[in-house]
Amino acid sequence: MRLKTLIVSIVVLAALAAIVAVMRRPAAPRAADSRIGQSLADQTVIEKTSKLRVSDQGKTVTLHRQQDGSWKVANYFDLPADFSKLSRLVNDLTSAKIERLVTSNPERIARLEFKDTKIELLDDADQVSWSVLLGKSADSGSGRFVQFGTEPKAYLASLSAWLDAEPKNWANSTLVDLKPEDIAKLEISLPDGDPVTFTRAKKEDPWTSDKTPDQQTINTDKVSSVLSSLTNIRFSDTVDPKDSKVSGARVQTRNAKLTTFDGKTISLTFGRKPEEKKLKPPAATKDNKSGPTALGTLSDAATGETKAPTSDPKLATPEYETIPAGPVFVTVSHSDPAAQVNELMKKRAFQISDYTFTSLPTSKVDLFKAAQPADLTPAVQ
After folding, report:
1. Residues 348, 239 contacting (CB under 8 angstroms)
2. How far is CA 79 from CA 18, 59, 304, in A?
3. Distance between CA 365 and CA 17 in Å, rounded?
4. Tell me: the pLDDT tens digits for 290-321?
5. 227: alpha, beta or left? (left if phi > 0; alpha if psi -120 to 50)
6. Which residue, 25, 76, 178, 192, shows the most beta carbons closer than 10 Å to its own?
Protein backbone atom coordinates (compact mmCIF):
# COMPACT_ATOMS: atom_id res chain seq x y z
CA MET A 1 0.00 0.00 0.00
CA ARG A 2 2.76 2.31 0.91
CA LEU A 3 4.60 1.46 -2.30
CA LYS A 4 1.53 2.27 -4.41
CA THR A 5 1.11 5.64 -2.65
CA LEU A 6 4.78 6.42 -3.20
CA ILE A 7 4.52 5.65 -6.93
CA VAL A 8 1.48 7.91 -7.29
CA SER A 9 3.26 10.75 -5.52
CA ILE A 10 6.25 10.41 -7.80
CA VAL A 11 4.03 10.52 -10.90
CA VAL A 12 2.22 13.62 -9.62
CA LEU A 13 5.49 15.41 -8.84
CA ALA A 14 6.88 14.55 -12.27
CA ALA A 15 3.78 15.96 -13.93
CA LEU A 16 4.01 19.16 -11.91
CA ALA A 17 7.71 19.51 -12.77
CA ALA A 18 6.92 19.12 -16.46
CA ILE A 19 4.23 21.81 -16.27
CA VAL A 20 6.59 24.23 -14.49
CA ALA A 21 9.32 23.55 -17.05
CA VAL A 22 6.94 24.32 -19.90
CA MET A 23 5.74 27.50 -18.22
CA ARG A 24 9.28 28.73 -17.61
CA ARG A 25 10.52 27.92 -21.08
CA PRO A 26 11.55 31.21 -22.83
CA ALA A 27 9.39 32.30 -25.71
CA ALA A 28 10.71 31.64 -29.18
CA PRO A 29 12.67 34.68 -30.39
CA ARG A 30 10.85 36.94 -32.79
CA ALA A 31 12.22 37.16 -36.29
CA ALA A 32 14.90 39.88 -36.50
CA ASP A 33 13.98 43.03 -38.47
CA SER A 34 15.21 42.60 -42.03
CA ARG A 35 16.64 46.15 -42.12
CA ILE A 36 19.13 45.54 -39.31
CA GLY A 37 22.68 45.48 -40.66
CA GLN A 38 21.63 46.73 -44.09
CA SER A 39 22.78 49.95 -45.77
CA LEU A 40 20.62 52.98 -45.17
CA ALA A 41 20.18 53.32 -48.96
CA ASP A 42 20.61 50.57 -51.51
CA GLN A 43 23.06 51.28 -54.32
CA THR A 44 20.75 49.79 -56.98
CA VAL A 45 17.94 52.17 -56.00
CA ILE A 46 20.30 55.15 -56.25
CA GLU A 47 21.49 54.06 -59.69
CA LYS A 48 17.91 54.15 -60.97
CA THR A 49 17.20 57.56 -59.46
CA SER A 50 16.22 60.45 -61.75
CA LYS A 51 15.81 63.08 -59.05
CA LEU A 52 17.14 63.63 -55.57
CA ARG A 53 15.32 65.93 -53.17
CA VAL A 54 16.69 67.21 -49.86
CA SER A 55 14.49 69.13 -47.42
CA ASP A 56 15.35 70.79 -44.12
CA GLN A 57 13.98 73.69 -42.07
CA GLY A 58 11.45 74.74 -44.69
CA LYS A 59 13.95 74.71 -47.58
CA THR A 60 14.20 72.19 -50.41
CA VAL A 61 16.76 71.52 -53.11
CA THR A 62 16.03 69.26 -56.09
CA LEU A 63 18.73 67.76 -58.30
CA HIS A 64 17.82 66.02 -61.54
CA ARG A 65 19.94 63.68 -63.63
CA GLN A 66 20.67 64.48 -67.29
CA GLN A 67 20.90 61.97 -70.11
CA ASP A 68 24.69 62.25 -70.13
CA GLY A 69 24.84 61.33 -66.43
CA SER A 70 25.47 64.86 -65.15
CA TRP A 71 23.16 66.58 -62.64
CA LYS A 72 21.56 70.01 -62.50
CA VAL A 73 19.98 72.03 -59.68
CA ALA A 74 16.35 72.17 -60.78
CA ASN A 75 15.36 75.01 -58.45
CA TYR A 76 18.45 77.15 -58.99
CA PHE A 77 18.23 78.16 -62.64
CA ASP A 78 19.17 74.67 -63.81
CA LEU A 79 22.83 75.34 -63.10
CA PRO A 80 25.18 72.33 -63.10
CA ALA A 81 25.29 70.57 -59.74
CA ASP A 82 28.44 70.11 -57.71
CA PHE A 83 29.08 66.44 -58.47
CA SER A 84 31.64 66.02 -55.68
CA LYS A 85 29.09 67.22 -53.12
CA LEU A 86 26.47 64.86 -54.53
CA SER A 87 28.95 61.98 -54.43
CA ARG A 88 29.69 62.63 -50.75
CA LEU A 89 26.00 62.51 -49.87
CA VAL A 90 25.46 59.28 -51.83
CA ASN A 91 28.50 57.73 -50.14
CA ASP A 92 27.14 58.73 -46.72
CA LEU A 93 23.78 57.09 -47.49
CA THR A 94 25.21 53.83 -48.83
CA SER A 95 27.94 53.43 -46.20
CA ALA A 96 25.64 54.12 -43.22
CA LYS A 97 24.19 50.95 -41.63
CA ILE A 98 20.94 50.33 -39.78
CA GLU A 99 22.13 49.40 -36.29
CA ARG A 100 18.89 48.58 -34.51
CA LEU A 101 15.16 49.01 -34.33
CA VAL A 102 14.57 51.65 -31.67
CA THR A 103 10.80 51.61 -31.26
CA SER A 104 7.41 51.19 -32.89
CA ASN A 105 5.67 53.12 -30.13
CA PRO A 106 4.17 56.38 -31.51
CA GLU A 107 4.78 58.20 -28.21
CA ARG A 108 8.46 57.26 -28.18
CA ILE A 109 8.80 58.08 -31.87
CA ALA A 110 7.42 61.56 -31.16
CA ARG A 111 10.30 62.18 -28.74
CA LEU A 112 12.93 61.50 -31.42
CA GLU A 113 12.33 64.90 -33.09
CA PHE A 114 11.26 63.84 -36.56
CA LYS A 115 10.34 67.09 -38.33
CA ASP A 116 10.90 68.03 -41.99
CA THR A 117 14.50 66.84 -42.51
CA LYS A 118 14.09 64.39 -45.38
CA ILE A 119 15.92 62.79 -48.31
CA GLU A 120 13.88 61.46 -51.23
CA LEU A 121 14.81 59.57 -54.40
CA LEU A 122 12.44 59.80 -57.37
CA ASP A 123 12.18 57.65 -60.48
CA ASP A 124 11.59 58.55 -64.14
CA ALA A 125 7.84 58.85 -63.47
CA ASP A 126 8.55 61.43 -60.74
CA GLN A 127 7.36 58.98 -58.08
CA VAL A 128 9.17 58.62 -54.77
CA SER A 129 11.01 55.30 -54.86
CA TRP A 130 12.79 55.71 -51.52
CA SER A 131 12.65 58.24 -48.72
CA VAL A 132 14.03 58.60 -45.23
CA LEU A 133 13.04 61.06 -42.51
CA LEU A 134 15.84 62.09 -40.16
CA GLY A 135 15.33 62.70 -36.47
CA LYS A 136 17.76 63.90 -33.85
CA SER A 137 21.21 62.45 -33.30
CA ALA A 138 21.64 59.74 -30.69
CA ASP A 139 22.55 60.89 -27.18
CA SER A 140 25.81 58.99 -27.48
CA GLY A 141 26.69 61.24 -30.43
CA SER A 142 27.06 58.25 -32.74
CA GLY A 143 24.33 57.80 -35.31
CA ARG A 144 20.99 59.34 -36.09
CA PHE A 145 17.38 58.22 -35.76
CA VAL A 146 15.62 57.53 -39.06
CA GLN A 147 12.22 56.53 -40.41
CA PHE A 148 11.60 54.97 -43.82
CA GLY A 149 8.73 56.42 -45.82
CA THR A 150 5.53 56.21 -43.77
CA GLU A 151 6.59 53.16 -41.75
CA PRO A 152 5.61 53.46 -38.03
CA LYS A 153 9.11 52.42 -36.94
CA ALA A 154 12.17 54.31 -35.81
CA TYR A 155 15.67 52.97 -36.36
CA LEU A 156 19.15 54.05 -35.37
CA ALA A 157 21.54 54.42 -38.33
CA SER A 158 25.27 55.12 -38.34
CA LEU A 159 24.71 58.32 -40.29
CA SER A 160 26.58 61.55 -39.59
CA ALA A 161 25.87 63.51 -42.79
CA TRP A 162 24.98 67.20 -42.64
CA LEU A 163 22.18 68.08 -45.02
CA ASP A 164 22.34 71.31 -47.00
CA ALA A 165 18.94 72.36 -48.36
CA GLU A 166 20.10 75.70 -49.84
CA PRO A 167 19.77 75.34 -53.65
CA LYS A 168 22.56 77.81 -54.48
CA ASN A 169 25.04 75.83 -52.40
CA TRP A 170 24.52 72.79 -54.64
CA ALA A 171 25.48 74.57 -57.84
CA ASN A 172 28.95 73.95 -59.22
CA SER A 173 30.63 77.33 -58.68
CA THR A 174 33.50 76.70 -61.12
CA LEU A 175 33.59 79.08 -64.10
CA VAL A 176 37.23 78.65 -65.15
CA ASP A 177 39.29 75.61 -64.21
CA LEU A 178 42.63 75.44 -66.02
CA LYS A 179 46.18 74.53 -65.11
CA PRO A 180 48.64 77.47 -65.26
CA GLU A 181 51.19 75.24 -66.99
CA ASP A 182 48.75 74.74 -69.90
CA ILE A 183 48.70 78.45 -70.76
CA ALA A 184 50.82 79.52 -73.74
CA LYS A 185 49.71 83.14 -73.92
CA LEU A 186 48.40 85.71 -71.45
CA GLU A 187 47.01 89.05 -72.49
CA ILE A 188 45.89 91.58 -69.91
CA SER A 189 44.59 95.14 -70.15
CA LEU A 190 45.97 98.00 -68.09
CA PRO A 191 44.12 101.15 -66.98
CA ASP A 192 47.11 103.36 -67.82
CA GLY A 193 48.05 102.02 -71.24
CA ASP A 194 47.85 99.37 -73.93
CA PRO A 195 47.36 95.69 -73.10
CA VAL A 196 50.46 93.63 -72.32
CA THR A 197 50.96 90.16 -73.80
CA PHE A 198 53.16 87.37 -72.48
CA THR A 199 53.95 84.24 -74.50
CA ARG A 200 55.99 81.06 -74.26
CA ALA A 201 56.58 78.25 -76.76
CA LYS A 202 56.60 75.45 -74.15
CA LYS A 203 55.46 75.28 -70.55
CA GLU A 204 59.05 75.02 -69.28
CA ASP A 205 60.15 78.06 -71.30
CA PRO A 206 60.43 81.53 -69.71
CA TRP A 207 57.80 84.15 -70.52
CA THR A 208 58.59 86.74 -73.16
CA SER A 209 56.92 90.03 -74.03
CA ASP A 210 57.32 92.59 -76.81
CA LYS A 211 56.35 95.34 -74.33
CA THR A 212 59.28 94.85 -71.98
CA PRO A 213 60.74 98.31 -71.21
CA ASP A 214 64.44 98.96 -71.71
CA GLN A 215 66.71 97.86 -68.89
CA GLN A 216 63.87 95.84 -67.39
CA THR A 217 62.77 92.21 -67.29
CA ILE A 218 59.49 90.37 -66.71
CA ASN A 219 58.37 90.06 -63.09
CA THR A 220 57.74 86.31 -63.29
CA ASP A 221 56.40 86.13 -59.73
CA LYS A 222 53.66 88.64 -60.54
CA VAL A 223 52.81 86.95 -63.86
CA SER A 224 52.56 83.59 -62.10
CA SER A 225 50.31 85.10 -59.41
CA VAL A 226 47.99 86.67 -62.00
CA LEU A 227 47.89 83.44 -64.00
CA SER A 228 47.05 81.39 -60.93
CA SER A 229 44.13 83.71 -60.15
CA LEU A 230 42.75 83.79 -63.70
CA THR A 231 42.87 80.04 -64.27
CA ASN A 232 40.73 79.23 -61.23
CA ILE A 233 37.61 81.38 -61.01
CA ARG A 234 34.54 80.48 -58.97
CA PHE A 235 31.38 82.47 -58.40
CA SER A 236 30.09 83.39 -54.95
CA ASP A 237 26.60 84.47 -56.03
CA THR A 238 24.45 85.02 -59.11
CA VAL A 239 21.94 87.73 -60.04
CA ASP A 240 19.64 88.53 -62.93
CA PRO A 241 21.69 89.92 -65.87
CA LYS A 242 19.34 92.92 -65.92
CA ASP A 243 20.04 93.79 -62.29
CA SER A 244 21.20 97.38 -61.71
CA LYS A 245 24.33 96.12 -59.94
CA VAL A 246 25.41 94.44 -63.18
CA SER A 247 24.92 97.54 -65.33
CA GLY A 248 26.72 99.61 -62.69
CA ALA A 249 29.69 97.22 -62.82
CA ARG A 250 30.23 98.02 -66.50
CA VAL A 251 31.47 101.49 -65.52
CA GLN A 252 34.88 100.07 -64.64
CA THR A 253 36.07 96.98 -66.51
CA ARG A 254 39.27 95.01 -67.01
CA ASN A 255 39.95 92.40 -69.70
CA ALA A 256 42.17 89.35 -69.90
CA LYS A 257 42.61 86.53 -72.38
CA LEU A 258 44.12 83.10 -71.86
CA THR A 259 45.31 80.92 -74.75
CA THR A 260 46.15 77.28 -74.11
CA PHE A 261 48.83 75.26 -75.89
CA ASP A 262 46.09 73.44 -77.82
CA GLY A 263 44.81 76.72 -79.26
CA LYS A 264 41.70 77.35 -77.13
CA THR A 265 41.04 80.87 -75.85
CA ILE A 266 39.13 82.01 -72.77
CA SER A 267 38.23 85.70 -72.69
CA LEU A 268 37.47 87.33 -69.35
CA THR A 269 35.83 90.67 -68.61
CA PHE A 270 35.74 91.88 -65.01
CA GLY A 271 33.47 94.73 -64.00
CA ARG A 272 33.01 96.69 -60.80
CA LYS A 273 31.28 99.92 -59.93
CA PRO A 274 34.03 102.10 -58.40
CA GLU A 275 33.92 103.77 -55.02
CA GLU A 276 32.11 107.14 -55.03
CA LYS A 277 32.36 110.28 -52.94
CA LYS A 278 29.24 112.42 -52.82
CA LEU A 279 28.82 115.87 -51.35
CA LYS A 280 26.66 115.79 -48.26
CA PRO A 281 23.78 118.33 -48.15
CA PRO A 282 24.30 121.03 -45.49
CA ALA A 283 22.75 120.17 -42.17
CA ALA A 284 20.05 122.52 -40.85
CA THR A 285 20.95 124.50 -37.67
CA LYS A 286 19.47 127.37 -35.74
CA ASP A 287 21.67 129.88 -37.52
CA ASN A 288 21.93 128.02 -40.82
CA LYS A 289 18.55 126.85 -42.03
CA SER A 290 18.04 124.88 -45.16
CA GLY A 291 15.08 125.31 -47.47
CA PRO A 292 12.86 128.38 -47.95
CA THR A 293 13.31 129.59 -44.37
CA ALA A 294 16.99 130.22 -45.11
CA LEU A 295 15.82 133.32 -47.08
CA GLY A 296 14.12 134.85 -44.03
CA THR A 297 10.60 135.08 -42.63
CA LEU A 298 7.62 137.12 -43.87
CA SER A 299 8.22 139.66 -41.11
CA ASP A 300 11.77 140.09 -42.32
CA ALA A 301 10.50 140.76 -45.81
CA ALA A 302 8.00 143.32 -44.52
CA THR A 303 10.71 145.30 -42.78
CA GLY A 304 13.15 144.89 -45.64
CA GLU A 305 15.64 143.15 -43.42
CA THR A 306 17.68 140.18 -44.58
CA LYS A 307 19.64 137.71 -42.53
CA ALA A 308 23.36 137.62 -42.97
CA PRO A 309 24.85 134.21 -43.57
CA THR A 310 26.51 132.56 -40.63
CA SER A 311 30.28 132.72 -40.69
CA ASP A 312 30.77 129.34 -39.02
CA PRO A 313 34.00 127.91 -40.60
CA LYS A 314 32.64 124.36 -40.26
CA LEU A 315 29.80 125.21 -42.64
CA ALA A 316 32.23 126.53 -45.23
CA THR A 317 34.05 123.17 -45.45
CA PRO A 318 32.19 120.70 -47.71
CA GLU A 319 31.58 117.24 -46.31
CA TYR A 320 31.54 114.07 -48.41
CA GLU A 321 30.13 110.62 -47.88
CA THR A 322 31.87 107.57 -49.31
CA ILE A 323 29.82 104.98 -51.17
CA PRO A 324 31.78 101.70 -51.22
CA ALA A 325 32.69 100.02 -54.49
CA GLY A 326 30.17 97.54 -55.80
CA PRO A 327 30.51 93.77 -56.22
CA VAL A 328 32.74 92.27 -58.91
CA PHE A 329 31.12 90.47 -61.85
CA VAL A 330 32.84 88.40 -64.50
CA THR A 331 31.86 87.45 -68.04
CA VAL A 332 33.56 84.40 -69.53
CA SER A 333 33.68 83.52 -73.22
CA HIS A 334 35.18 80.24 -74.46
CA SER A 335 36.34 79.74 -78.04
CA ASP A 336 34.76 76.27 -78.05
CA PRO A 337 31.05 76.82 -78.84
CA ALA A 338 30.17 73.65 -76.94
CA ALA A 339 31.83 74.84 -73.72
CA GLN A 340 29.32 74.82 -70.87
CA VAL A 341 30.40 78.23 -69.58
CA ASN A 342 29.06 79.94 -72.74
CA GLU A 343 25.56 78.69 -71.92
CA LEU A 344 25.88 79.71 -68.28
CA MET A 345 26.60 83.32 -69.23
CA LYS A 346 23.15 83.51 -70.88
CA LYS A 347 21.37 82.51 -67.69
CA ARG A 348 22.83 84.61 -64.90
CA ALA A 349 25.37 87.28 -64.02
CA PHE A 350 28.13 85.83 -61.87
CA GLN A 351 29.61 87.60 -58.87
CA ILE A 352 33.13 86.64 -57.79
CA SER A 353 35.51 87.55 -54.99
CA ASP A 354 36.81 91.11 -54.85
CA TYR A 355 40.38 89.83 -54.66
CA THR A 356 40.37 88.52 -58.22
CA PHE A 357 39.71 92.06 -59.42
CA THR A 358 41.83 94.03 -56.95
CA SER A 359 44.86 91.77 -57.47
CA LEU A 360 45.03 92.53 -61.20
CA PRO A 361 48.05 94.64 -62.20
CA THR A 362 47.20 98.30 -62.71
CA SER A 363 50.43 99.37 -64.42
CA LYS A 364 53.48 98.05 -66.25
CA VAL A 365 55.36 98.72 -63.04
CA ASP A 366 53.58 95.69 -61.57
CA LEU A 367 54.59 93.38 -64.43
CA PHE A 368 58.20 94.37 -65.02
CA LYS A 369 61.19 95.02 -62.80
CA ALA A 370 64.72 96.37 -63.17
CA ALA A 371 67.06 93.91 -64.84
CA GLN A 372 69.97 92.66 -62.76
CA PRO A 373 73.44 93.57 -64.15
CA ALA A 374 75.36 90.72 -65.73
CA ASP A 375 77.87 89.00 -63.48
CA LEU A 376 81.37 90.28 -64.01
CA THR A 377 84.07 87.63 -64.18
CA PRO A 378 87.45 88.91 -63.00
CA ALA A 379 90.28 88.56 -65.47
CA VAL A 380 92.73 85.77 -64.82
CA GLN A 381 96.21 87.07 -64.10
Report:
1. yes
2. 75, 18, 72
3. 105
4. 555 554 554 554 555 555 555 555 556 778 88
5. alpha
6. 76
